[in-house]
């Protein structure tokens, strides 16, 4: 116990003066609010800060919340709702209005780092959903242009992106076979990548090893999905010859390969969401706090490592990442497991131990001074 206290004290003293570069390496938190029992905005911000997150991603651009975040050092990612995309795509004044209302009053005191246009819109294949697909890149162009004309100097660093789910790639296995769905490849993905490459933005990805694992647990090793490195469970892609030690790298690389097939070899991935459920209301095996803590700690260890690890296809490349989610959200639709992704319960107590700076997991830091 005394040793532990000493170790913590040592960690505290060496991480006491975070440089910017260091802060940027930390992991951010997705602050979803689909619950009727969640702490207030200011309590939530305190919790996020006490967890040492470097950033917070919200699913709207709530002005009260953005105002409260101005007193934090947190980098903030805000979102244009799916329902606004078509209108913004067709009218520059509406894009200007959006930026004037949700960005200008707050930035840079609130450190808005990215504006995400929509959320997983390519996962909606209804007729109405498809109309949004084609408005996506035009809307991003307009928001980007409003930032340039209205945002002044400080807005230049704000990235415009859109988070997509893994269902936009048709094949993830082997990773080298990664390719975008044919119904979006030329019409949406090509112009999107052109935009991201041209503006220096990232390709934001919602990526969960939990889903492929839970749909096929007899063929996918649990530790491989949890990023627990093992001597004998590696996979070599026969086409690329690259060797994989975990499922997350495989999934990320399938997207890099898909981008490469359209000629984009430089656009960086950012993980807009990843995580593991802490419980399931009884319906799925494998969703528990132990696995959730293991997965999230392993993700943090990888994405905060210095120098960056990257993936087999993009070794050494840093990947900005957000963990999903701050709280269990009791109003999320879908199967029971959807309501159990929190790092914290709605009362604010942690489901498992987590150090979002990654310091606790860095072997190069002597724990025994
Ligand atoms: C664009 O939006 C503005 C502001 O709401 C509105 O005044 C204008 O009529 C719209 N233009 C078109 C072509 O719909
Ligand atoms: C699998 O990967 C791990 C971690 O990189 C490595 O230590 C181990 O030697 C590899 N095993 C094989 C059989 O390649
Ligand atoms: C991506 O951007 C770089 C730098 O601006 C440019 O040289 C390259 O041609 C672009 N790639 C594609 C496929 O457009
Ligand atoms: C956050 O960082 C502080 C100071 O470095 C440290 O004392 C604290 O234990 C950290 N909190 C968590 C939850 O890791």
TrEMBL record:
One of its GO terms (biological process) is carbohydrate metabolic process. It is found in: Cell membrane. The keyword Metal-binding does not apply. Gene3D superfamilies: Glycosidases (3.20.20.80). Residues 1-16 form the signal peptide. It is a lipid-anchor; GPI-anchor. Its main location: membrane. Its EC number is 3.2.1.39. One of its GO terms (cellular component) is side of membrane. Keywords: Disulfide bond, Glycoprotein, Glycosidase, GPI-anchor, Hydrolase, Lipoprotein, Membrane, Plant defense, Signal. It catalyses: Hydrolysis of (1->3)-beta-D-glucosidic linkages in (1->3)-beta-D-glucans. One of its GO terms (molecular function) is glucan endo-1,3-beta-D-glucosidase activity. Belongs to the glycosyl hydrolase 17 family. PANTHER family: GLUCAN ENDO-1,3-BETA-GLUCOSIDASE BG1-RELATED-RELATED. This is glucan endo-1,3-beta-D-glucosidase. It comes from Kalanchoe fedtschenkoi (Lavender scallops). The lineage of its organism: Eukaryota, Viridiplantae, Streptophyta, Embryophyta, Tracheophyta.
């Amino acid at each position: 116990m005394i040793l532990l206290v000493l170790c913590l004290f040592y960690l505290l003293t060496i991480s006491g003066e975070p440089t910017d570069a260091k802060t940027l390496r930390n992991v951010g938190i997705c602050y979803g609010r689909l619950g009727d029992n969640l702490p207030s905005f200011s309590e939530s911000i305190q919790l996020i800060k006490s967890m040492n997150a470097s950033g917070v991603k919200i699913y709207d651009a709530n002005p009260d919340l953005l105002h409260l975040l101005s007193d934090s050092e947190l980098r903030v990612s805000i979102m244009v709702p799916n329902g606004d995309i078509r209108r913004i795509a067709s009218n520059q004044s509406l894009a200007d209005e959006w930026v004037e209302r949700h960005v200008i009053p707050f930035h840079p005191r609130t450190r808005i780092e990215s504006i995400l246009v929509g959320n997983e819109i390519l996962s909606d294949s209804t007729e109405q959903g498809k109309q949004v697909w084609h408005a996506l890149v035009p809307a991003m162009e307009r928001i980007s242009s409003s930032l340039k004309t209205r945002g002044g100097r400080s807005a230049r660093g704000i990235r415009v992106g859109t988070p997509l789910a893994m269902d936009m790639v048709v094949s993830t296995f082997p990773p080298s076979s990664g390719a975008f769905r044919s119904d979006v490849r030329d019409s949406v993905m090509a112009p999107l990548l052109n935009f991201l490459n041209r503006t220096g933005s990232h390709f934001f990805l919602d990526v969960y090893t939990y889903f492929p694992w839970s749909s096929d647990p007899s063929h996918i090793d649990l530790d491989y999905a949890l990023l627990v490195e093992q001597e004998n469970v590696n996979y070599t892609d026969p086409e690329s010859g690259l060797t994989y030690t975990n499922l997350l790298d495989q999934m990320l690389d399938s997207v890099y390969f898909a981008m490469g097939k359209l000629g984009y070899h430089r656009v960086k991935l950012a993980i807009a969401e990843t995580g593991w459920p802490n419980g399931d209301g009884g319906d799925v095996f494998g969703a528990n706090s132990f696995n959730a803590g293991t997965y999230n700690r392993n993700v943090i260890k990888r994405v905060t490592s210095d120098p960056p690890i990257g993936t087999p296809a993009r070794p050494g490349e840093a990947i900005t990442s957000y963990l999903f989610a701050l709280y269990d959200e009791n109003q999320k639709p879908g199967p029971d497991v959807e309501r159990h992704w929190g790092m914290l319960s709605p009362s604010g107590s942690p489901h498992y131990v987590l150090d979002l700076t990654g310091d606790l997991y860095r072997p190069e830091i002597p724990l025994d001074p």
